[in-house]
Amino acid sequence: MRTLQDRVKEDGVVIDEKILKVDSFLNHQIDAKLMYEVGQVITEHFKDKKITKVLTIEASGIAPAIMASLHLDVPCLFAKKAKPSTMTSEFYQTDIHSFTKNTTSTVVIAKQFLNEDDHVLIIDDFLANGEASLGLHRLVQAANATTSGIGIVIEKSFQPGREKLESEGLEVLSLCQVASLLGNTVKLVGE
Amino acid sequence: MRTLQDRVKEDGVVIDEKILKVDSFLNHQIDAKLMYEVGQVITEHFKDKKITKVLTIEASGIAPAIMASLHLDVPCLFAKKAKPSTMTSEFYQTDIHSFTKNTTSTVVIAKQFLNEDDHVLIIDDFLANGEASLGLHRLVQAANATTSGIGIVIEKSFQPGREKLESEGLEVLSLCQVASLLGNTVKLVGE
């Protein structure tokens, strides 16, 4: 998606060779029109998949997910980061490790919002090691629902996330693929 | 806003006389079309205020805020809940107390995204005691910016939030005003 790729090149801040900060349009300040367009492109790609629900994780996944949800005309569900003490039998839960932050969060969704008839489109802001998307996929599996695809705003293609997801048989669409952050420069795939 | 009010009556779950759970369309699963309409109504109300930025707080504020942001064609900024250890001089920070959860969170915004020329529309999912909106207003003040209005999805009118905000000279628009949750029933203002 050209407008997004241009934006990543212009406004992305390289923190180190693995971390790209996009606080000006996605992770802190959000460009709503850009996210609307992101939602449109993701929807167009997965339009034949009979999606019944969009699933993401708080907080940065919500903006792209709700825009896809708007275009698909299906509900958007966001997994919550919760302390294990709040768990009950009414929730599906899984642990998601963040290599970037070196933390592990327990995330939950209420069982009532996902069932075996659901065809789920997972959406997230970043794909790096794939831990978040895999965690969301485990929640879909726990509900005996089907993951119909994964839509990602920015993929760090030099990390193994896509490979892990595809080896699970999952289809991944990324709207911007970053090939490298070496030399303090954002290099996109195909450049 | 009639569609929202009907939805609150139909799908709101009364937990106790102070807590209303709307996990099916706002706080866990989100109805994107309803939020799109919420954004439209808030935008229409504040359209003459020359809003330059929408400000909310993660996570449940993001959906209504980004829809208002989309209609207003201005950026949406969400305050992050952060540990004090992550604070630096590049952030404005304030503490927000939640009477519902009986917790106090430090929330931050990066200084670079708010300045003295900004006219800010604060948006949040709920108004109860007003602590979240007041906290966001303090962040706006810290940046020497102007709070031009407050848009709320659901107001619990039996709690003192509106009174506190109005005594600060702030204009509050709520799209659904709950008069009482007594007797396990959602009673709206005007019913």
UniProtKB/TrEMBL annotation, chains A, B:
Gene Ontology biological process terms in this record: purine ribonucleoside salvage; xanthine metabolic process; XMP salvage
Signal peptide coordinates: none
Functional pathway: Purine metabolism; XMP biosynthesis via salvage pathway; XMP from xanthine: step 1/1
Molecular function GO labels: xanthine phosphoribosyltransferase activity
InterPro entries: PRTase-like, PRTase_dom, Pur/Pyrimidine_PRTase, Xanthine_PRibTrfase
Biological role: Converts the preformed base xanthine, a product of nucleic acid breakdown, to xanthosine 5'-monophosphate (XMP), so it can be reused for RNA or DNA synthesis.
Name of the protein described by the UniProt record: Xanthine phosphoribosyltransferase
Species lineage: Bacteria, Bacillati, Bacillota, Bacilli, Bacillales
